Structures are given as structure tokens and as C-alpha cells.
Amino acid sequence: MKALTQQELEHFVSSVAPLLDGAQLQEIIANDRGLALGFQSRTRYWLVLDLVPNTPMMLLFEDHCPFKKSPKTKPVGLFLNSKAKNLYFTSMEVLGQWGRIVTIALKNAETECELELRLIPKQVNLIVKSQGKQIAWEKPLDLSPPPAIENPPPPRTLEQIETEWLAEQGSVKKSSLDPVAQWEKQKSKDLEKKRKALSEIQKQIESDKYETWYELGNFLKSEGRLQVPEHLKEFVNSKESLSWNIENSFSKAKQLLAKKEGAKDRLDDLIKEISQLEKATYKERPAGSQLVDLMKKTEARGRKLHLESGAVVYCGKSAADNLALLRQAKAWDFWLHLRDFPGAHAIIHRHRDQLISDKEVQEAAEWVAKESLASKSLMVGQKVAVVIVECRFVRPIKGDKLGRVTYHSERSLSLTLRHA
To answer: Residue 408 burial (CB < 10 Å; 0-12/13-18/19+)?
Structure first.
């Protein structure tokens, strides 16, 4: 996952600050990744400060906290409990001159506390100041103005950032494995997007701003001066000439009128799209529908197992074959590995919205064990730990000839082998 960009951070702060205004800090949860600050107003909000060095993040959750408290105490957490708990949120600002740095001010009638959050990759830090004392998550480094960035990437929405972050934590496994829930979630997002567009289009149709531009153009043309009535002053550019303002006025009027006419056509189409989407229901993909054969695509050697759901399990004959299969697998395919048994791993190739049950994972795990391990390595009734993770979270170790990988956001299953 990519860290917050400057634009995304500024959008987050402008969206979140009004929600937390006046809220009381009532709970602090600290763990190895960072902190979660529980604010209470009319609603319970959790401000999560993820201080991972390469991908720092700040997120807001309503009613629930995705962070768990660490059994080990953290100095910054203890300091906040002592100095900031029960204070009220007063402001949140981005210090743009230094890049991705946010200050949060908390206070009551007697005391105040400031949090300086540095969300700069490899310079991540949280510095807390109160009553002349200061504590930091890491040793503070000197700041310098951020470099200019040409052609920055388009900003993600807050919803996209939250979804990506939760996926990294493994908190959305259910929806990623449950095609119905995934489809319903996407349907809700699409409906919200279309309804918002419908509202904007209706505003365009109801707007009569084009008439104001026509009025201005006609006034300038007939009167021959830039001194206009009060209600037209905001539309005049006094730095430009009379002829420029006349041309600009009629041009703006024509543009707005054209948009108004186009909006009427789009309105009818959008109403139909919303109606169709509201009536839409999930349709399960038929089992056995077409999947690309990874063996043929990669020219790798190995074996494959067809599961009842239509998914296909691939196990390479060598480390090179397994790496070739992994590199051609889809992001949503699963990488499966028997923990503590080197080489015992495979790819479960599936459709994007296809559910893979624990029963099928067990079948695949037993098959992989049988295909890739010596018969003496395992026996009936033996318990094994199986790691399963989407291929998007698996990375081959560069230059490693043994085919080893790194991975995260996995889930583990403990299985009892039924066949040796």
C-alpha cells in the first residue's frame, strides 16, 4: 500500500477536523504499529495513527477500532494517558511547508497538549508536547522542505484508502472471500456515486447562471463600460479589457447553456441506470467457467488439481516452476503454503469473486503435501499449519534461487491430514 500523498493528507484533515471538533479524548490504544485515539462527541470516533516506517497512515473509523492494544506498555501511550486524556479536540492542521506533517491541538480550561504527526516515509514520528515536557515515538530528525513533485498521481478517495489499509491488516478477509458481500458492497458504492451525480446534474439543470452571463455580456456591449450593477460585479475581470470581458461573458453563457442541455439528456440515462442497479441481484458465476491455464501460459512443469468450485490448484515441479506460476497468477488468486515444510506451496487459481471454502483449502493442502513431500514426512492424523494469502501480498525474494518469498496479510488454518 502506498503512503498518503500531500493532497490526500490535506483532504483527510479538511474532512475529519469538523467531525472531531469539540470531541473529548477518552481512550488511547497503543501497539507496535502506532496508536488509536478514541474521541467521544455525539458519535464515537477512532483516529488511527499507523506509524509503519515505509507507509505511515492516518485514518478515521466510526464506532469500532481496528487496532488492538499491546500487552506491552508504550511510553507515548502512557504519556498521552497522563497528559491528554479527557482533553478536547480543538484543531488539526497540515504544516505544508514541511510536507506531510499534521498538528493536533487538545485542551481544556486548565491545560493543553499538542501532537505533531510526521507521515513522511522513513521519517515517521509522533511527537507529543504538554506542560513543557515532550516525548516522541522515534528520535526526531531535522526537517527540510519537501521536494517539488511533477505530475503527482491522482488522489485516492478516503474510502479507497481505508479499504486498502484494512486489506493490508487482513481485516476484510471475509468480504474478499465472500462474493455476495463483495458484490453488495460494490453495488452500494456504485449507487452512492450515481445518486451523487444525479444530484449534481439536477443542480446544473435548475441553474440559471447562464442568464446572468448573458445579462453581463449585453450590458457591457450596450453601455461600453466595465462599471456594472452590483449583482454583476463578481463576474467582471477588471484587469482585462472591455472587449475581452464581452467575449468571455457570451462564451461562458454558451458553455453553461450547452452543459444544461447535455445534463437533461444525461439525467434520463442516469435515472434508468439507478433504477436498474437498485433492482439488480447477485448472479453466481457457473462452476467450471473459463479460467486461463497457468501451466500453458507459463510453460511451467508441474501438476494441477480441479476443485469442486471450479478453482484450479497448481503445484510446480521445481522452485523455478513455482515462481513462474506465482508471477502469472492474478492478484486475487491464493498462494498456499504448508508452514515448516519448505517447497510445499501452490497457487489456487480462481475467479475474482469466487469463494474458496476451508474444506477446499484442506483438500488443496493435502494434495500439495502428497505431491511435494516425501511420504515419510507426513502421516494420517498429523496436524499441519497452512498459510493462505492473496497473491497480491506475496513477493519473490530477488535473486533467491530457492524460490523463497515474503508475504503479509495472511491467514492460517490448522488442519488434520486425512490422507498421507
So the answer is: exposed
